Amino acid sequence: MSSHTLLEELVEIARPFASYGKVANYIPALSDQNPDDLAICIYSIDNESFYAGDHLKKFTLQSISKVIALALVLMDNGEEEVFSKVGMEPTGDPFNSIAKLETHKPSKPLNPMINAGALAVTNMIKGNTGMDKWERLIEFISHLTGENVTYNEDVAYSELQTANLNRSLCYFMKQHGVITGNVEDLLVLYTKQCAVEMNCVDLAKIGAVFANDGWDAESGKQLISRDVARICKTFMVTCGMYNNSGEFAIKVGIPAKSGVSGGIMGSVPGRCGIGIFGPALDEVGNSLAGVKLLEGLSAKYSWSIF
Ligand code: GLN
To answer: Is 194 near ligand 1, meaning CB less than 6 Å away?
Structure first.
């Protein structure tokens, strides 16, 4: 059976699980996504791609952008500075929780994959103006995909209007010196970052660069340093699937990062990147059918890193 046919079969086995999930609606513009969509691309580190489902359909990165921004910021500022503002430990709390910011000392976010930590990371993107920072980020993402990537203005605006929880995380962190500068400007940048739009082929391509220790075979360039790629993949294992990362590590065992749009980026070290889109989410915010699909795929190809 060809790889394409096998992928189509795995998609059809996973698709019914979407009916147990719900599309995110706390960002109003995400609520009109079709819960039955499911698409996947596998992109090998030497640029071969296989896909199934509607692989050209675009979606926004949401939390998947956290890994990419982290890679840029680590290369910009170095580990020492970045980890003086954000920790390295997983949390059992939801991604948007504020609780540990107050109870955990020192008063910095536990890790860069939760909203508080991601906001602190985005605050460290280098640039003189918000526009400079945005241009550096979108250029970096475009290099990773090899395409001219843009963002979805409606989704960014919709989130900016309703991001009061993220606003409060920012003000709390500003009071404690974790972030600096104007909070509204940071939220504009963060919501654009989350609204970066692509299809699952582009996403799989980024996953392949991480899988290949930062080396991009297509352009023949080291787009992310080896060390930074290693750190990012480690966070994907420990915190990438929110407060379900432990169960995911056991059942799938692939470094992965999900977003509330229903995207998942996977990175199988030394082999391939995986891009998935399936917007019906489970209760922690991971694509329900997407996780089922990864379970099937990991079992079939023995891709668990453990
Ligand atoms: N933009 C979203 C937020 O900040 C990203 C969250 C997510 O994908 N989990 O709420």
So the answer is: yes
- Regarding whether 175 and 121 lie in a shared domain, the answer is yes
C-beta of residue 242 within 8 angstroms of C-beta of residue 94: yes
Asked if 282 contacts 268 with a C-beta cutoff of 8 angstroms, the reply is no
Ligand 1: does its nearest atom lie under 6 Å from the Cβ of 189? no
Geometric angle at alpha carbon 277, from 216 and 1, rounded to 5°: 80
What are the pLDDT digits (tens) for 58-70? 999 999 999 999 9
- Regarding whether 136 and 16 lie in a shared domain, the answer is no
62 CA distance to ligand 1 middle (Å): 5
SS3 assignment, position 3: helix
Q: Which of the residues are catalytic?
A: 63, 66, 190, 242, 260
Residues 68 and 190 in one domain: yes
Whose tokens are 């640029």? That residue is: 47
Span from the CA of 6 to the centroid of ligand 1 (angstroms): 32
The CATH number of residue 164's host domain is: 1.10.1500.10
Q: How far is the CA of 68 from the centre of ligand 1 (A)?
A: 14
Instruction: Give me the number of domains the chain comprises.
Output: 2
Q: Model pTM?
A: 0.97
Residues 204 and 221 in one domain: yes
Q: Which residue has the tokens 């920790």?
A: 87
pLDDT tens by residue, 233-275: 999 999 999 989 999 999 999 999 999 999 999 999 999 999 9
- For a substitution probing ligand 1, which of 95, 121, 157 has the most ligand atoms within 8 Å of its CB? 95
In a domain, 306, yes or no: no
Domain hosting 91: range is 63-194
